[in-house]
TrEMBL record:
InterPro entries membership: dCache_3, Sensor-like_sf
The name this protein goes by in its record: GGDEF domain-containing protein
Domain Double Cache: 41-205
Coiled coil: none
Organism superkingdom: Bacteria
Organism: Pseudomonas syringae pv. pisi str. 1704B
Amino acid sequence: MKFKASFQARIAGVLIVLLLIVVSAVYIAVKVATGEAVRTQAQAQLEVGSRVFERLIDLRGKRLRDTVQLVAADFGFRDAVASADSSTIRSVLLNHGKRINASDMFLLGMDGTVIASTVQKVPEGSRFVYDQALRNAKRAGQSVLIVPGGGDPHLLVEATVLAPLPIGRVVMGFTIDSDIAEELRSLSGLEVSFLTVEDGKNGDLISTQPEALHAGLIELMRSSSEGQMLLTEQSNLNFLSQTLMLANTNNGGDGQVIALLQSPLDKAYQAFAPLNQKIFWISMAALVASLIGTL
């Protein structure tokens, strides 16, 4: 009888170990599968969101370009440009700029020389620093040029002033601020951040993320390769992140504008949490029932 009881105990022990292995393997497999599903879903969202983001930037640029073209075609504006009086042109630039919420306004000669400027750091008579970049963008069919300026990213839009021959180029800059970032987040479904880098120095981070995450975001944006998708963690929050280089004219003095798009993973993980819990308790119930059956 003792031998029989001992044999049954060994059989029960082996079955218990096997059941534990099977239950653990099933639970781990489900966890891995749900994690992979979350990452795949986040990757798809990031890919779609990045295309939406780029499309939205392009559409905004086209709207701004159309607006600036209307300014350039205005009779009063053309008359002021034809006067060649920088103070008059500057005043007209300010008036029109306020109407369309432009932050920086310039009138350039056809050779790229600054005729009138509302920005103190861009003196009249100097060569406009983004003249060649604007020409390249125009040849490439781009409606807008994204550049750093004073620590903030700017959208630069150009239109030619005709009277009826070309007599100048009006350039207006529009700051990318937190309102634009929030709009892009609502339309793309992604967390959006912008960072300018000029002379190796970081500008102010514009982000839809909480300020507590900003230091880590800046480090991530400076260290990540363009277009690469990475699983990242900031303050115990998980994201699938991708950086985009919005401005890099290959001129060290021009600086860079970096965008960071992030798809949150934690909410997706939470959606699978009830399923994981159910599988866990079902596995435990099966294990207990099996143990009872072996006794």
